[in-house]
Amino acid sequence: MDPERVAPDIYCLDTHLMGIPGACSAYVVDAAEPLLVDAGDANSPDHLLNGLDALGIAPADLDHLLVSHVHLDHAGGAGVLQWLG
Questions:
Q1: pLDDT for 5 beyond 80
Q2: Is residue 25 within 8 Å of residue 74, measured between CB atoms?
Q3: What is the pLDDT of residue 84?
Q4: Would you list the DSSP string of the chain?
Q5: b/e per residue, 5-26, with b = 16+ CB within 10 A?
Q6: Rounded Cα distance, 6 and 84, in Å
Q7: Angle (CA) 37 49 14, round 5°
Q8: pLDDT (0 to 100) of residue 85
Q9: What is the pLDDT at residue 82?
Q10: What angle do CA 35, 19, 14 make, to 5 degrees?
Q11: Cα dist. 30→19, 35, 37, 41, 54 in Å?
Q12: Whole-number pLDDT of residue 21
């Protein structure tokens, strides 16, 4: 699924939680300092990176990762993503 614009400069990315499309989402704020809200589960980083690529945001350009809470469906991919920047 391609990123879905939900507000000016804010996009929803499908994290494919447990391999299920539409089960959970992360959000990108496309700003001067791009922000990713939530990291999905441990299998989500590839989906998130594809979504960022579709928005023209390189992993190294992602300035902030905000994890809303520590449940693995929102924070499980953070460890992988933090190594990319």
A1: yes
A2: no
A3: 73
A4: ---EEEETTEEEEE--GGG-TTS-EEEEE-SSS-EEE---STT-HHHHHHHHHHTT--GGG--EEE-S-SSHHHHTTHHHHHTT-
A5: eeeeebbbbbbbbeeeeeebbb
A6: 26
A7: 60
A8: 60
A9: 82
A10: 30
A11: 26, 7, 11, 22, 12
A12: 94
Q: How many CB atoms lie within 10 A of CB 27?
A: 18
Q: Write the class of the CATH domain 4-82.
A: alpha beta
State pTM to two decimals: 0.91
What six digits make up the tokens of 58? 């390189």
Taken in order 6, 15, 75, 73, is the CA torsion positive or negative?
positive
Give the Cα separation of 79 and 63 in Å (integer): 15
Mind listing the pLDDT tens digit for each residue in 19-73?
A: 999 999 999 999 999 999 999 999 999 999 999 999 999 989 999 999 999 999 9
